[in-house]
Amino acid sequence: MKEFYQLKYIKAGVVIVMIMTTIMSCNTDDFLEKEPVTEITAENAFTREKDVLASLSAVYDPLQWQFVNGSHTFPQMFQSIRSDDEHSQQAAFWAIGANFDQFNTILPNNASVAGVWSKWYQGIARANFTIKLANEFPRFETEGIKDRIIGEAKFLRGLYYFELVRLFGGVPIFTEPVITTEDELFKPRSTVAQVYEQIEEDLRDAVQLLPRKGETDVWRATSGAALGILAKAHLYQKEYPEVVQYTEEIMTHGYALEENFGDNFKLNNEFGKESLFEINYVDGLVGGGFETPTPIQEGSGSWKFMFMFIDSYESFGNMLPRRSLVEFFDDSDTRKEATFILPGSRTFSPGLEARGWDPAPASFPFAIGNDAMSRKYFLTFEEVEGLLSPFQSPLNEKVLRYADVLLMHAEASLMGGGGDGANSFQQVIDRAYGPGNPAAPAYDLQGVKDERRRELATEGWNRFTDLVRWGDAKQALDAVGKTFTVDRDELLPIPSVEIAIYPPGMLQQNLGY
After folding, report:
1. pTM to 2 decimals?
2. Hey, is 414 helix, strand or coil?
């Protein structure tokens, strides 16, 4: 049940409608006699506490956008397909996804690159507006609500800048909303270090302002979520003592691994004990699909993209795990069955036998020699048939799990950050392999790298940038037949449409593009 959705992810259109309603409700003669309003403030547009909460809900909204400005922006495109984990599969059908199978086809005019840039900056703009609004709003009635609103908005702004800096490097930093005709519209790129400084500042503030898990709505950002992204930001900067500090603080917040790894990805176990932050989806709030001219989705399109087209199961067969990824898992690793749908699997869907698939398909007819599908976003036939909109899955995406925290702690400890990283690593591998399994890797840097790949495979938030920060990208990508150019392909190009609207020479392109 998702009865709590009514306050979340309300569209920016709500804010705009409120502003327009305020203006249009004025008497025409009075309006013509007054000076034009050129500034949006708490006094002239927002009169109730719930209006400010609606503004905050709009800050969450871009997390759901898998389709922006006419192109897909699935996280798997930038992390999994661009890495050695997944293949786009349908080159003829999904040409823009196929661009991410190689690097020489990722160009500054790529629409999905422009879409993901726009997605995160729209979120940042909304966060900036909400922070200013909450600071100026004079009529809060609920105790502590102001701090919570500011804390959630700062968490999201920090998360959005973290995504931008990982994908693009140094980017322009905006921390004030554009609310008057005199505000600064364009800024040059900041350095990577400056972007991380802003991320850290936002997330440290969020840690202080936000409650712990269990003390607020399950879908909201918490201090634990802020600590998790803060730890990851330090990990990317190789600041290992800080990673240990923040991950060990998270360990006091009551998170724990699910006993069964696959339970993390079940529709009836969302916001479970292992979840620090996830994108909340619901089915049927809008009539269309996720591929709409404007980002109005409430449900996820992931299931539509990731599975084969059989019988009434009408999905597209894209974003598929590479054979080399499947083979990277030992058969005794319980995560293998929970990560992949393999030919002959009798847990593929309860409705297979009723549809004449007994046993399950002996092979999947994918053109790339692949013989697996991703299970983590899978819906059964029965769950799909129950959807109000066939394009809108209610299954959430996990952005940060406690297993990731334990692996960050293990890695930072190995790299000199202190702490008992061996214990953290052991928790992850014991769940995966069972205690005493000789197939489990040793606790060393390669073991941690391998376990990060297996643990987080196909979730779409880590693999490519993990390879880059380790310096392993070229070796890993050459191994799957990609041509990776060092000092170019670590980053996406700055979108040409953004460079074009900036004053000439202000927004510099990344090297090699």
Report:
1. 0.90
2. helix
